[in-house]
Specification:
InterPro entries: ACP-like_sf, PP-bd_ACP. This is Phosphopantetheine-binding protein. Helix 1 crosses helix 2. The radius of gyration is 11 Å and the shape is globular. Helix content is 54%, strand content 0%. The longest helix has 15 residues. The chain is an all-alpha fold and 74 residues long. It has a single domain, classed as Non-ribosomal Peptide Synthetase Peptidyl Carrier Protein, Chain A, CATH 1.10.1200.
Length: 74
């Protein structure tokens, strides 16, 4: 999954208008972010890639860059 594909999921599936330069921003600073967004993002990534995502590990991540790095490393 490319970074652009990942951001497309964030923007379209989660309906979050995250700019390219905001992906390193802590979730506490992103308007409207909550734990349900994480679950929806995981489901969307799994659906798009066909691979399971380690949800427990993602919970420690505090921004989208960290999540993307963990997803692409798996």
């Amino acid at each position: 999954m490319t970074r652009d594909e990942f951001l497309h999921l964030v923007r379209d599936e989660l309906d979050l208008p995250v700019a390219d330069d905001e992906t390193g921003t802590d979730f506490d600073q992103i308007v409207s972010w909550n734990s349900l967004h994480m679950l929806r993002l995981v489901a969307a990534v799994e659906r798009e890639t066909g691979h399971s995502v380690p949800v427990g590990r993602l919970l420690a991540d505090r921004n989208l860059d960290s999540i993307y790095a963990r997803i692409t490393a798996a």
